[in-house]
Amino acid sequence: MAAGWTQDRVVQLAPDGASLKAGQGLALTKKWVSLGRDELYVWGECQGSGAKPYQVQFDLSESASKCSCPSRKFPCKHALGLMLILTASSDAIASQAMPAWVAEWVAGRIERTRKRQEKAEAPPKPVDEEAQAQRLEKRLARVAEGLTALKRWAEDLINAGIATLPSKGYAFFDEPARRLIDAQAPGVAGRVQKLAQIAGSGAGWQHPFVSQLASLYLLIRAFEGRAALPESVQHDVMANIGIPVKSEDIAALPAVRDLWQIIAQEVDVEEGLRVQRTWLFGSESRRPALVLAFAHGAAPLDVSLAPGLSFEGEVTYFPGNGLRAAVTARGDLKPLTAARGLATLEELCAFATGHFSQEPWLSEVVTPVHRVIPMKSDGGWAMVDADRRAIPATMNDRAGWLSLAISGSHPIDLMTGYDGRSLRPLAIIANGEYVSLMSGGA
């Protein structure tokens, strides 16, 4: 199958469960007026309720699609149905000459790629560094004012006690969060909103709440004393506050070349903005990397990095000790049939501790761990390694039973987040097959 396409990889593309179910209903050749493909593209005409069939095309190399239907979801149900037909049987869609309507789309994509390359290779426009510095100084002044108010709020909270916070609801945290948005500190606002989620999470909320509040207070104090901190930590402080890094600063940093495994991907919606988090892990460097992509409303996200694949390429890390990075060079995508990661859960604990000590505001580290077995007990789910050490796993029963059924109580490779207390299983590899444990992933 071209570019390592499988049924599971198509499922990963679905924007939601309803789109996937509708796409599965269209994964029948009798519902299509025409079907065709070549080495890079697949296309078809799907008969809908109208007289004219919908024209669907898909770029196999970049996971990009287009459909003439009015849906605002990407990919739409027709594109999902087309790809499910292709991945169900390599003989289901015959190779043939590209029709004119597909060739027109392909030509447009090639032209847009050419223009992007020209823009990237063009000499940079002169930057008014003085004006840029003045804008940053004004923003930092607003941030400082917002953090000073938040510091007083946090101290008052501790002095008054936290026992009654669950009864106050989200509204209690909304006001300080809005003030921080106005102060241009969106990263801190998100941490305040996280406090609201923890306070409303039910029994046992107190310890994680105090831990999150302490982390928030540490960030405020670090900002206040940032001039005395090492440069890398200053970058961490700015990143956690939400002050972006200039693209030219990232381009000037050295890249890490490796065989990069795409071990997991998830999409969240934050204030109408879809945030896609793609986790990579270097086979030789043994470094995790987080690649972020954003889209407003129904705009399409970058789906070129699909989980369960790997590529030879270069990744450039953002300044500081965090894990955020950008893919700056990428070779062909290949199926990830076996993970190269950490050997034991004890190694995972030591590995994560090293990252948390460098970047104290890091919420979790995502890595592959070899040869673990899912286990169910009265207290919930856990993962056990070959040394018989176990760590609790935070996952719903659907994901737990799925991992247990696929493993057959035999060791599997686990792609997991770890926050220092519990695992957050994201996917597994068993018998050479990558299976997502997140919603809609299997």
Structural class: alpha+beta
Order of secondary-structure elements: HHEEEEHHHHHHHHHEEEEEEHEEEHEEE
Overall shape:
globular
Q: How many beta-strand segments?
A: 16
Largest beta-sheet characterization: 6 strands, antiparallel
**Count of helix runs:** 13
Mean pLDDT: 91
Q: Give the percentage of residues in beta strands.
A: 25-35%
State the end-to-end distance. 19 Å
Note poorly predicted spans: none
Helix percent reads 25-40%
Based on CA atoms alone, the radius of gyration comes out at 24 Å
Total individual domains? 4
What are the main properties of this structure?
442 residues; alpha+beta; OB fold (Dihydrolipoamide Acetyltransferase, E2P); 4 domains; six-stranded antiparallel beta sheet; 13 helices; 26% strand
Gist of the model:
By secondary structure, this protein is α+β, with helices and mostly antiparallel strands.
